[in-house]
Design goal:
The chain is globular. The longest helix is centred in the middle third of the chain and has 18 residues, at 208-225. Strands 9, 12, 15, 16, 17, 18 and 19 form a seven-stranded mixed sheet that branches. Strands 1-8-6-3 form a four-stranded antiparallel sheet, with no helix packed on it. It is an alpha+beta fold and 402 residues long. It has three domains: 2-77, OB fold (Dihydrolipoamide Acetyltransferase, E2P) (Beta Barrel), CATH 2.40.50; 88-159, Irregular (Dihydrolipoamide Transferase); 181-400, Chloramphenicol Acetyltransferase (2-Layer Sandwich), CATH 3.30.559. A hairpin with a 4-residue loop joins strand 4 and strand 5. Helix 1 (114-123) packs parallel to helix 2 and helix 6 (232-245) packs across helix 7 (289-305). The chain has helices spanning 114-123, 141-150, 154-159, 180-195, 208-225, 232-245, 289-305, 310-313, 378-393, 396-400; strands at residues 2-6, 16-22, 29-30, 35-40, 45-49, 54-59, 66-68, 72-77, 198-206, 252-254, 257-259, 266-268, 270-272, 275-277, 280-281, 318-322, 341-345, 349-355, 358-372.
Length: 402
């Protein structure tokens, strides 16, 4: 007797997805509710779990195929099956040094995504010697890169026999199908440019006071709240305060009407294995700095594990994007429709500035506010950005709502 594996409900307004990876192969034992495949939707990756325990049966679709909600993608057969680790090749003793090009194949018991498998092969890393930080201990690209950086695999790679013939030098190309997430990002960003009248205004902010506060209280903060004190908590609170004073920046155009909100659901750009995602801090205006930092920390961890949900991404009234963590000095961020504005943060660097008639060195950051000029006037945009700047340069304002 077999039980069908069907595509689950993917979320409101999402009717199809792409089969990103099979996590179980035919003949392998499967426990009830164990992940057997991963799907890529427009926003997040979703795991398909086994409805019953048994043996992985036939796979009805291939990786990369588009599937609809309710579609049958495979089956679970009755029986105990063989564990994934029970590979005939595993019974043979492995050579002292595994050649890099066979490192991934020699450990077929490990579940590796296509991107991780390709990286393992490129770097000559033995995946069995790396502790995975992803869900259920699976390896991520970051795990492999960290192992390569530590040099733990260098001796094995050096001891590997030289390939019979080096590949001929030339102008190589590789064609990779865009993920559904990347396709959606590309479409939405182009729609934003085609629909909104996007304009960007800039300012710079002196980070001296915030950095001093962070240095003074970071240890006590982490001890009390169990999370590190970063800069995003300060900026999120500053944004919420500025949105209260300049409500148009938090508004949106719907047809011939403008919708103003008395709440701030702040989207924060977070790096995930498949690209940037923007989960939402709900009612950020009512949260403390500690609550905001905990929420962002949780988003970052779940983005790395691939466990963010569609509900985590839904909504959002304003976006903060911190390109500074990647070293960006200045940018013109694109708004995330139907939102009307996005704040871009950048790297902090010491620069000479004039204070009280004297040239001094201060840690400075450029701020960029991109906004929809159909709704937000230049005066409102500049006033909003100055309000954020003032709150960061004098954090006491955040406490007394000035």
């Amino acid at each position: 007797m077999s039980t069908e594996i069907k595509v689950p409900t993917l979320g409101e307004s999402i009717s199809e997805a792409t089969l990103g990876q099979w996590l179980k192969q035919p003949g392998e034992a499967v426990a009830a509710d164990e992940a057997v495949a991963s799907l890529e939707t427009d926003k997040v990756a979703i795991e398909v779990t086994a409805p019953v325990a048994g043996v992985m049966g036939a796979q009805a679709v291939k990786e990369g195929d588009t599937v609809g909600v309710g579609a049958v993608i495979g089956s679970i057969e009755e029986g105990s099956g063989a564990p994934a680790a029970a590979k005939p090749a595993a019974a043979a003793p492995a050579p002292a040094a595994t050649a890099p090009e066979h490192a991934a194949e020699a450990h077929g018991d490990l579940t590796l995504s296509p991107a991780v498998r390709r990286l393992v092969l490129e770097l000559g890393i033995d995946p069995s010697k790396i502790k995975g930080s992803g869900k259920d201990g699976r390896l991520t690209k970051e795990d492999v890169l960290a192992a390569a950086k530590q040099g733990g695999e260098a001796p094995a790679a050096a001891a590997a026999p030289a390939p019979a013939a080096a590949p001929a030098p030339g102008r190589g190309e590789e064609r990779v199908r865009m993920t559904r997430l990347r396709q959606t990002v590309a479409r939405r960003l182009k729609e934003a440019q085609n629909t909104a009248a996007i304009l960007t205004t800039f300012n710079d902010v002196d980070m001296t006071e915030v950095m001093a506060a962070r240095a003074k209280y970071k240890d006590l903060f982490e001890k009390k709240h169990g999370v590190r004190l970063g800069f995003m908590g300060f900026f999120t609170k500053a944004v919420c305060m500025a949105l209260k004073d300049i409500p148009a920046v938090n508004g949106t155009i719907e047809g011939e009407e403008i919708v103003y909100r008395n709440y701030a659901d702040i989207s924060v750009a977070v790096s995930a294995p498949n690209g940037l995602v923007v989960p939402v801090i709900r009612d950020a205006q009512a949260k403390s700095v500690a609550e905001i930092e905990r929420t962002i920390g949780d988003f970052g961890k779940r983005a790395k594990d691939g466990t963010l949900t569609l509900d985590d991404m839904a909504g959002g009234t304003f976006t903060i994007s911190n390109g500074g963590v990647f070293g960006s000095l200045l940018s013109t961020p694109i708004i995330n429709p139907p939102q009307s504005a996005v704040l871009g943060l950048h790297r902090i660097e010491d620069r000479p500035v004039v204070r009280n008639g004297q040239i001094v060195i201060r840690p400075m950051m450029y701020l960029a506010l991109s906004y929809d000029h159909r709704l937000i006037d230049g005066r409102e945009a500049v006033t909003f950005l100055v309000a954020v700047k003032n709150a960061i340069e004098d954090p006491t304002r955040l406490l007394i709502d000035l």
